[in-house]
Amino acid sequence: MSSPVRVAVTGAAGQIGYALLFRIASGQMFGPDTPVELRLLEVPPALGALEGVAMELDDAAFPLLAGIELSDQAETAFAGVNVACLVGAKPRGPGMERADLLKDNGKIFTGQGAALASAGASDLKVAVVGNPANTNALIAAANAEGLPAERFTAMVRLDENRAKSQLAKKAGVPVAEVTNLAVWGNHSPTMVPDFDNARIGGRPATEVITDREWLEGEFLTTVQQRGKAIIDARGASSAASAASALVDHVANWCGGKPTADGDWVSMAIPSDGSYGVPEGLISGFPVTTDGNGTYEIVQGLELSDFAQQKLQASVDELQQERDAVADML
Ligand code: NAX
């Protein structure tokens, strides 16, 4: 057995937290041989509920769970952490403008970025889920002095998984046959699930699903609007599927589960200028990973005019978000 990975989860008493913690503690994020220590951050009013979650984690008697620490102080929760899952965020209230949401969340992520830099382990890696995830990750990175920006990522994996499942259903194949599905751009309704470069059973997805009107229309809108459809149906936003996607994101990045040969996964990462995405913006890209903390953008993919136009709109949105929080960067 290796020494425990210290994992921070913020917003740990929330609904994603409730689904996520049990997956991490059972070994699904870092593998069956790696113990984990959970360091959970919440706002003071949620600490009581968080204690209840910790009691349930105890009661599950996970052999890999090496410890649980609860706190309402970021520096305490982040002490020595190797991986930080930033899930907690302020939800958009009634009548709240997107700019207000960006600002309110920005305040959370400036503080948490600074606390991560001062308290985290030297190999710290950060995955942001709390929305607006890409820009929150940008803010955290900008305020984490001394930590390389590429350690800050945001989650677009739920969008990838949603897209794979829609393609699999349409093609009538198991979802595992859908590979090479990249989600480009922002985690927002402007995201771009890239069906042109996706593969189904090893063949180009567009050869298996020849109905391009469906791909450009219903497929795209179903994936982009899936979050809203879940809220309408469930009366609450996606939680278990979001937690599952985060397990996938971290496991591929640094949980010992590299991307399969020839395949890639989607991560929102600081752009190096690839594919015309301005340097520094945190955008969804296809990446390969080594499972040990390194990722690389897949180069040389062709984007159709349709996809390029959509990506430009998503990048424009990311730039507007960056401009709206310029004073926090
Ligand atoms: P919940 O409202 O159930 O939980 C959020 C938790 O965060 C609450 O317990 C709250 O007390 C806590 N919190 C708020 N501010 C905090 C702070 N400063 N420090 C620590 N904790 C804090 O939301 P949940 O459904 O769990 O969703 C969490 C976030 O994920 C939301 O921002 C949501 O929009 C976002 N999502 C992102 C997705 C993605 O694909 N990137 C998909 C799912 C989800 O919608």
UniProtKB/TrEMBL annotation:
GO terms for molecular function: L-malate dehydrogenase (NAD+) activity. It is an enzyme of class 1 (oxidoreductase). Substrate binds at residues 92, 98, 131, 162. The active site is at residue 187. One of its GO terms (biological process) is malate metabolic process. NAD(+) binds at residues 11-17, 105, 112, 129-131. The keyword NAD applies. It catalyses: (S)-malate + NAD(+) = oxaloacetate + NADH + H(+). Gene3D superfamilies: Lactate dehydrogenase/glycoside hydrolase, family 4, C-terminal, NAD(P)-binding Rossmann-like Domain. Residues 157-325 form the Lactate/malate dehydrogenase C-terminal domain. Its EC number is 1.1.1.37. CDD domains: MDH_chloroplast-like. Residues 5-146 form the Lactate/malate dehydrogenase N-terminal domain. Keywords: NAD, Oxidoreductase, Tricarboxylic acid cycle. Belongs to the LDH/MDH superfamily. MDH type 2 family. Catalyzes the reversible oxidation of malate to oxaloacetate. This is Malate dehydrogenase.
